[in-house]
Amino acid sequence: EHEFHREHKPLKLASDGPFGRFDRQQLQRGFQVYKEVCAACHSLRLVAFRNLEDLGYNEAEVKAIATQWAIQQPSINPETGETATRANIPSDRFPLAFANDVAARAANNNAIPPDLSLITKAREGGAAYIYSLLTGYQNQPAELVHEFPGAKTPEGLHYNPYFPNLNIAMPPPITSNDQVTYQDGTRATIDQMAKDVSAFLVWTAEPNLETRHQAGLATILFLLIFTLLTFGAYRNIWRGVK
Ligand code: HEM
Hints:
Elements: H1 24-36, H2 59-68, E1 73-76, E2 83-86, H3 101-107, H4 119-122, H5 126-135, H6 142-147, E3 158-159, E4 167-168, H7 190-205, H8 209-237
Antiparallel strand pairs: 1-2, 3-4
Helix pairs in contact: 1-7, 5-7
Bound molecules: protoporphyrin IX containing FE.
């Protein structure tokens, strides 16, 4: 029996479970990986720079991140219709990585790097899938090619058992330890960077996760107390009735 397609590697994040809260240090590290590695090809079109304040950056830091962002914001002169670009401001969403799909395909072996804003919701396995995909690149097993010659990884694609069709157009993005330099002293191993960016992409897809968890807990608590009260009322009403 062959298992060429793998179960996701387990990934534990602080945001997991009904009591889960984001680890903001980790989210900042994950943002750094996104910024320095993934942003070259992937957009985050549903996230605005000012949303980064959630991660613990202050207003000035957000402004600096926006202004210094490598890709500028497209702008249209309302009088002349001329297109131009301008520096990003905190209220802007993250700009697209490519001008359009044709440009995206041209740069990526005819594949379009998907927008990553909601990717942890869009893919089965969520963050664990992203983590597995990023750390899962390997040489294609010879027995697979032997058994299924048509499945041989085509030129320009990359074998990855966690990618549903096994051969992905994305070259391995995280390839060496210390590819980024973390500010908080955390050692930037391949594994750590993959975990951090996966955690960050949980936040982009659901920045209000903590509020949802709190509302859920408050609801359960309310229902518990309500149940006790109604039970008490029931006992009271039926007291003395035989
Ligand atoms: C696809 C994440 C960096 C190019 C993807 C997918 C994810 C992802 C989750 C979707 C896989 C799927 O459809 O299930 C990331 C992360 C990165 C990163 C977290 C940074 C750590 C890059 C870079 C490039 C790139 C730097 C370009 C050089 C692509 C392309 C696809 C893709 C072309 C589409 C693959 C296909 O459909 O075959 N990436 N990526 N990615 N990525 Fe990335």
